[in-house]
Amino acid sequence: MTIQTKLIAGNVDIKIPDSFVLHQNYPNPFNPKSIIKYEISKTGYVTLGVYDILGKEITTLVNEIKSPGYYEVIFNGANLSSGTYFYRLQTGEFFSSKKMSLIK
Fold first, then answer.
1. Beta pairing partners, 101
2. Distance CA 102, CA 104 (A)
3. Which pLDDT tens digit goes with each residue over 37-91?
4. What is the largest CA-CA distance in the chain?
5. Which domain, by its residues, includes 86?
């Protein structure tokens, strides 16, 4: 399983997000890679995990302190079976989950 993370930034005028947001992954359904984007409005400890349909953690994509900004993670499910998976973002008191489908 391969995980890539990057901070998305543009020109010098970087806008800080107004709130925490977890976006729907794309493409969805996917095979084998999908992009998960999220926004952080203030510095804090961030975790982003992927879980199977039974709630078992498959992998942790992010587990660190992040500054405010726009982020994306490329999730590679090449070693996983086809099925429904969930990803969950948590930072401070905010948490959100979304569903994604891996179809091989």
1. 84
2. 7
3. 999 999 999 999 999 999 999 999 999 999 999 999 999 999 999 999 999 999 9
4. 44
5. 3-102
Q: Give the chain's domain count.
A: 1
User: What CATH number should be reported for the domain holding residue 57?
Assistant: 2.60.40.1930
Tens of pLDDT, residues 17-27 = 889 999 999 99
Nearest Cα to 34, choosing from 1, 10, 9? 1
**Interatomic CA distance for residues 35 and 73, integer angstroms:** 6
User: Looking at residue 92, what is its pLDDT?
Assistant: 87
Distance of CA 9 to the CA centre of its chain: 17
Q: Which pTM does this prediction carry? A: 0.85
Contact between 25 and 84 under an 8 Å Cβ cutoff? The reply is no
Residue 67: Cβ within 10 Å count: 12
> How is residue 82 written in tokens?
């086809």
Write out the two tokens for 102. 């891996």
